[in-house]
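Researcher: First entry.
Model:
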Amino acid sequence: MPAHVKAALLDPSLTLPLSDGRPTLGTWQGSSCASTATAAVHARWSPRRGASRPSRVARFTDYDGLVLPGGVANPDRLRANEEAVEFTRAFFAAGKPVGVICHGPWTLIEADVVRGRTLTSWPSLQTDLRNAGAEWVDEEVHVDQGLVTSRKPDDLPAFNAKIVEEFAEGVHQGQKESAAA
């Protein structure tokens, strides 16, 4: 396991002063893989941390993994933002691990990276995911070649453990293949 993993949290609720209203990218670096990933997930509920840079200037090459937030409003705003969608797609094309919870898969659908993949989400997204070519399962956490998905906040302990594991593993060939499909 690497001593340090840099995770990106794409979250439209995190804003910089003088922001133009676009999603911002928050990053948190910890002394270990576990603290980094956990901080990235919990940042959704701690927006006072601030973002390190707006998404329009962030480069996916600067990060080892991506965490997309849940809820309804955040994923809805992200999927409507082409910069956020392209940023997300780039992680898949590079084979980097991605963690998504709740309604977060909406952004993955928009990025066209779920076809042929198996994932879970908030139950009301199962038809959207199937229509986009994914297989939906009702599980606390599901891992498919570096893509970690969970259903709801109650699943966070299992979700956190799995994203830490997947981020530590690094690049996954299956992620690359889903972006090329």
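Researcher: Second entry.
Model:
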Amino acid sequence: MAGGAAALAGGAAGVAGEVPALAGGAPAGEARDGAARLAEVDSWAGRHLDLLADLEAGWAEASAGSTMIHADLRVDNMLVDADGTVWLCDWNWPCLAAPWVDLVLLLPSVHVAGLDADAVLARHPVGRHADPAAVNAVLAAFAGMFIERAAVPPPMPASPWLRRHQRYFGAATLSWLRSRVS
């Protein structure tokens, strides 16, 4: 379930100022290769591997678009100044995608905080137009990317917390996806 990993690896490689597409030719369906890792993170995911692989297979088409996105939008990549303005930082992966993708990547944090991520998605101006199947495909791909990356040694130098962070976001993303498809 590492389809998202290859896409993001290409995300920073814009040529001559072009912003690459999120999908960047990523392989799909790699979930079947990560069954043991998935089961360690989430027993439901281990039992529903075929479903997750099928969902992930459609992520590149589902996320296609012409909106420049951050592609790593999480609360730890945002700063709020004294005036209440939110500043997005850590722009390592800017790319083109559907306008709702950044919101979807932020919402697993909302879900694990006990809030209704689906309600936020449905009320948000860009989220309300997102196809539920497309959202599920993107969630499957990004959950897989986080889980796959969490399973390998971190690049050096890197934060000693990097892999724990990725495992947490993989589990959070799987949790929201599970609530959407169960």
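Model: Note on the second entry: The chain has one domain: 3-181.
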